Amino acid sequence: NAGVTQTPKFQVLKTGQSMTLQCAQDMNHEYMSWYRQDPGMGLRLIHYSVGAGITDQGEVPNGYNVSRSTTEDFPLRLLSAAPSQTSVYFCASRRTGGFQETQYFGPGTRLLVL
Amino acid sequence: QKEVEQDPGPLSVPEGAIVSLNCTYSNSAFQYFMWYRQYSRKGPELLMYTYSSGNKEDGRFTAQVDKSSKYISLFIRDSQPSDSATYLCATMNTGNQFYFGTGTSLTVIP
User: CB-based contacts of B23: which residues, under 8 Å, 6+ apart?
Assistant: First the structure.
């Protein structure tokens, strides 16, 4: 059971480039989400999904796209990278239901946009 | 106003000390509260959760919620160097959206 996996671990982009951050989970969780973590700002929700084919925006969605074609995968796309998107990105998954359902986080992707 | 506010610290204590970590939240409708621990260069992991007001104890850790003052706390007794990490408080709304504090960095000195 690998849990939540993220690739790549680290990426450097130039302004205007696009890329996809991959996230996969093998726990058959319905709920998946993407966060960014910045110093002094904490974890902020970018997008989330409550099941395959269903996505919704979080607190800071601008500049990011997501799709959920399968239960296991939830990729995050940066359409045209900007320096303001330099951050650490975490993917998370949990079973839907009560608050007692644990949210599991991946190891993170560190992104630097020059 | 952010949904959850947390003192970022850093906090440095000697081994064996009692540690108190605190957060405030803005929306009185929140009923679910969590504490996550995050080691350096790792993803957060759930430490404890509580529902509504009251205390919950798990070993050396106690989570406390005071809904009248919108205050949530985490106490660590007999702190150990392995407790050195960043601690994030969080709450969840009825739509399954999570709101996190900025995290408090804790160092326990042997």
Answer: B4, B5, B6, B71, B72, B73, B89, B101
Of B34, B42, B88, the CB nearest to A42: B88
Query: Is residue A85 a contact partner of residue A113, using CB atoms and an 8 Å limit?
Result: yes
User: Which of A88, A93, A99 best probes binding to B when mutated, by most B CB atoms within 10 angstroms?
Assistant: A99
| Inter-residue contact A104 to A93 (CB < 8 Å) | yes
Which tens digit of pLDDT belongs to each residue from B81-91? 999 999 999 99
Helix (H, G, I), strand (E, B) or coil at B83: helix
pLDDT, one tens digit per residue, over B57-90 is 999 999 999 988 999 999 999 999 999 999 999 9
Spatial distance between the Cα atoms of A48 and B1, rounded to a whole number of angstroms: 22
